[in-house]
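User: Predict the structure for this protein chain, please.
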Amino acid sequence: MKSLWEDLNQKVDQQKVLTDQLILDMTKERYEIRMRSISVPETLSAFICFAAVIYLISNFNELDVWYLQLTGVLTIVACLLLPILSLKSIQKLKAIDISKSTYKASLLNYAKEKTRFMRLQRISFYTSFIVLILTVISFGKIIKGIDVFTMTEKLNWLVPSGIGILYIFSQWVLKKYKKATDAANAILKELEA
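Assistant: Here is the predicted structure, written as C-alpha cells:
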C-alpha cells in the first residue's frame, strides 16, 4: 500500500510539473503573439523608412541648395534613427524570457522596457510631424522639382492635410501599441495566480 501511495504521489507531482510547464509554454506563446502584433508593423515601417533613405541618398544631387540639402540630411537621419531605436526597443521587449527568470523579475523587466518603448513611441509621435515637413520639402524637390521655400502656393493644402492624417494615424498606432503592451503585461500577471 505504501509503495502504491508513493507511486501515486510521484505521478501527481509529475502531472503538476507538466501542467505548470504547459501553462508557462502557453503564456509564453501568448506573450510572443502580442509582441509580434507590435514588431511586424514596426518592421514594415522601418523598411519603408530605409527605402526612403536609399531613394534620398541616390537622388541627393537633386537637392541643389544648401537648405534643401540640410532638410535631406535631417530626413535621412530621422528615417534611420527612429526605426532603429524603435526596433531595438521592441527587441528588448521580446527578449524577456518568462521561462528562465522569476515571475517578479520578468514583470519588473517588462515594466521597465514597456516604459522605455512607450516613451520612445511618444517621442516618435511628436518628431514625426517635423519629419513629415522635412520629407515633403526633400521629396517635393526630388520628385516634382518644387522648392517649397520659394513656391508655397502649390503646397498650401498638402502639409496641413498631411499633418492631419499623420495625427489621426499616429494616435491610432499609439492606442494599438498601448493596448498590445497592456495585454502582454496582463499575460505576465496571470503567471502570479
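The two ends are 35 Å apart (CA to CA).
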